[in-house]
């Protein structure tokens, strides 16, 4: 994901990390309000930050993790509210930084709150 871009992801299903195939439908049940997560960036280019935000929103109020240069792998964990309505059980990844900044991103959902 490159600087100035975002990616909205649906977190409702469990996926096989190697193939991306769904291994459990509705692992995060309808009505869940928040999830706990670990997020990792790797193969960074430039200096930047990543923010996770609820639903399909792209408004950033704080970074989730930061990196200072190319070739870094950085991780952080936290808790985030999920989107509602059409964006239910979704979160958005936002990347920002110097021009040309990008990173590969892995998001692991570790639990949920009803």
Summarize the structure.
The chain is mainly β and 114 residues long. Helix content is 0%, strand content 54%.
Topology summary:
Blueprint: E1 5-10, E2 14-15, E3 22-24, E4 34-45, E5 48-54, E6 65-67, E7 74-81, E8 90-97, E9 102-113
Antiparallel strand pairs: 1-8, 2-3, 4-7, 4-9, 5-6, 5-8
SS strand fraction: over 45%
Order of helices and strands: EEEEEEEEE
Shape: globular
Secondary structural class: mainly beta
Spatial extent as radius of gyration: 14 Å
Low-pLDDT segments: none
Characterize the main sheet. Answer: 4 strands, antiparallel
Give the N-terminus to C-terminus distance in angstroms.
Answer: 30 Å
Treating each run of at least 4 consecutive H or I residues as one helix, how many helices?
A: 0
Number of beta strands: 9
Helical amount = under 10%
Mean pLDDT: 95
Strand order of the largest sheet: 1-8-5-6
Structural summary, described in words:
There is one protein chain. This protein has 114 residues and is an all-beta fold. The chain is built from no helices and nine strands. It has strands at residues 5-10, 14-15, 22-24, 34-45, 48-54, 65-67, 74-81, 90-97, 102-113. It has a four-stranded antiparallel sheet, with no helix packed on it. It has a three-stranded antiparallel sheet with strand order 7-4-9, with no helix packed on it. It has a two-stranded antiparallel sheet with strand order 2-3. The radius of gyration is 14 Å and the shape is globular. The relative contact order is 0.36. The mean pLDDT is 95.
């Amino acid at each position: 994901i490159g600087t100035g871009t975002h990616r909205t992801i649906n977190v409702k299903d469990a996926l096989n990390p190697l193939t991306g195939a769904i291994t459990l439908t509705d692992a995060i049940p309808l009505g869940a309000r928040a999830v706990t997560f670990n997020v990792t960036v790797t193969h960074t280019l430039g200096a930047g930050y990543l923010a996770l935000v609820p639903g399909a929103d792209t408004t950033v109020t704080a970074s989730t993790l930061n990196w200072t240069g190319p070739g870094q792998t950085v991780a952080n964990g936290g808790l985030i509210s999920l989107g509602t309505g059409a964006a239910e059980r979704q979160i958005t990844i936002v990347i920002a930084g110097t021009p040309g900044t990008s990173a590969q991103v892995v998001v692991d959902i570790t639990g949920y709150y009803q």
